[in-house]
Amino acid sequence: MQMAAEFGAFFGQEWWSLLFLGVICTGLCNWAQTVGQRSIPAGQAAIVYATDPLWAAFFSWLALGETLGPRGWAGAVLIFTAAISTQIIALRVPEALVEGDTSLEEML
């Protein structure tokens, strides 16, 4: 009987929190993400998604005071380096090479 009372108390008190998390944090954010993806190329969207763990770590530090250990920092540096390097490479590679109109040998 105690378990049933705890179950009822959980849904009585925490129901609004679960509803908020489901509707706002999941539904609204996924909708905004989908709308935002329409205006940028797929490659750039992939880079933004790849940095999601960095944003999660940043906001957990900001809101909850959580910290990263050495492995977490190493992972963050690798993710950040990969995201930045792909953008630098994308800026340096001519558009014709990306589209396959010419070869690298012809450009040199």
Written account of the structure:
This protein is mainly alpha-helical and 108 residues long. The protein is 83% helix and 0% strand. The protein is built from six helices and no strands. The longest helix is centred in the first third of the chain and has 36 residues, at 2-37. It starts with a helix and ends with a helix.
Describe the structure concisely for a colleague:
The protein has 108 residues and is mainly alpha-helical. It has helices at 2-37, 42-50, 52-64, 70-92, 95-99, 104-107. The protein is 83% helix and 0% strand.
Average pLDDT figure: 79
Order of helices and strands: HHHHHH
- What is the CA-atom radius of gyration, in angstroms? 22 Å
Distance between the termini: 79 Å
Beta-strand percent range: under 5%
How many strands appear in the DSSP assignment? Answer: 0
Helix run count: 6
From the spread of the alpha carbons, the general shape counts as flat
Query: Poorly predicted ranges (pLDDT <50, ≥5 residues)?
Result: none
* Secondary-structure class: mainly alpha
What can be said about the biggest beta sheet?
Answer: none
Q: Could you estimate the helical fraction of the residues in percent?
A: over 70%
